[in-house]
Design a protein that fits this description.
about 350 residues; mainly beta; five-stranded mixed beta sheet; 22 strands; about 5% helix
């Protein structure tokens, strides 16, 4: 499993020491051209960013810290200057039922934000590190900004759980097919990545629907997780994080992608390899001190992810890069120093 239930040692201390820069999460038009990207500054200590690109303001909702705000999903916001400000957490206390369903849960992980018909749907994971006892839950709101008078996250309960299955129910991602039907992609290690049909307006699992496999490495340590499906130019692109995260400078995450004409797959890489057979075309990988990029989302043509800073003892940071397209395939490039 990739997600951390609490931050340890220097990471926790650094996070708690930061007073407050903000972020924004969500989803923007899938095929929008890449927005201008400003190097993120301010409170950039973000893990698993759910990014929503806006005009004057953008948001990121991200994995919580078990020692801060009862471990609830964190909220940040930035203006066009790229300075992120911490706005707090979704709730002051986690819904009580989560602790009953997931004993020992410390913090909530890897959120996804999706807007449908004027409602924001916030999906998030509840688990404990290294465990397959996990679930994905849902909350809804009409606003992302805590300063909005209509802002209130309403608990909508459980969407899917791993109990009695061979999959791990974390890392939610939402996509609509050509008919407007919503789908939930999810998964981490175990039997790989899955997809299951949801329904509007509840945003919950459609009656009788069972998950379908969309990616699997077929290895004993099946290190693939964090699916995010992006519709683009009539196709669906499955982004995933391959390798190990949450190990600081020893993290091996990289972002890969596969493409399909159907939301449920099969997803193939640029060489024709199936993602259900350990395929995947690399979108972004480590480069020098920029280690282990992953936990990705896409909004407004911008790829959001976290990475580990080798020059800062492996502290995690927010990454934002324009998503580039060439011959029908996406990629991202780390910025280079000016000559």
């Amino acid at each position: 499993m990739s997600r951390f239930p609490r931050l340890a040692g220097a990471v926790a201390a650094a996070l708690l020491a930061v007073a407050a820069p903000a972020a924004l999460a969500g989803c923007a038009p899938a095929s929008a051209p890449a927005a201008a990207v400003v190097e993120p500054t301010g409170d950039v200590f973000v893990h698993d960013p759910a990014y929503v690109h806006g005009g004057a303001e953008s948001y990121i909702y991200s994995t919580g810290n078990g020692g801060l705000g009862d471990g609830n999903i964190q909220i940040r916001r930035a203006g066009t200057d790229g300075v992120w400000e911490y706005l707090g957490e979704v709730w002051e206390a986690k819904p009580a039922w989560l602790s009953e369903r997931i004993p020992g849960v410390q913090n909530l992980w890897a959120p996804e934000l999706y807007e449908h018909d004027g409602t924001w749907y916030l999906y998030y994971s509840a688990s404990t590190f290294g465990s397959n006892v996990s679930l994905i839950a849902l909350a809804t709101n009409t606003a992302l900004d805590p300063d909005d008078p209509e802002y209130e996250w309403v608990d909508r309960g459980e969407v899917i759980a791993s109990e009695g299955t061979d999959f791990n129910a974390i890392d939610p991602g939402i996509v609509e097919d050509a008919d407007g039907t919503p789908w939930l992609s999810f998964g981490s290690f175990s039997s790989g990545l899955k997809i299951v049909q949801l329904e509007w307006p509840t945003g919950l699992r459609a009656d009788g629907e069972e998950p379908t496999a969309i990616a699997d490495r077929g290895l004993v340590e099946n290190a693939i997780e964090a699916p995010f499906i992006l519709p683009h130019d009539g196709a669906f692109y499955l982004f995933a994080s391959r390798g190990f995260c949450c190990k600081g400078v020893d993290s091996t995450y990289e972002i890969i992608v596969g493409r399909s004409s159907s939301v449920t797959g099969p997803y193939l890489d640029a060489d024709g390899g199936a993602l259900t057979e350990d395929g995947g075309t690399v979108v972004l990988s480590a480069d020098g001190d920029r280690i282990g990029p992953g936990g990705q989302s896409v909004s407004g043509g911008v790829l959001a992810f976290h990475w580990y800073d080798g020059a800062a003892d492996g502290m995690f940071r927010l990454g934002l890069l324009p998503l580039l397209w060439e011959d029908g395939w996406p990629r991202a490039e780390w910025p280079r120093p000016a000559a």
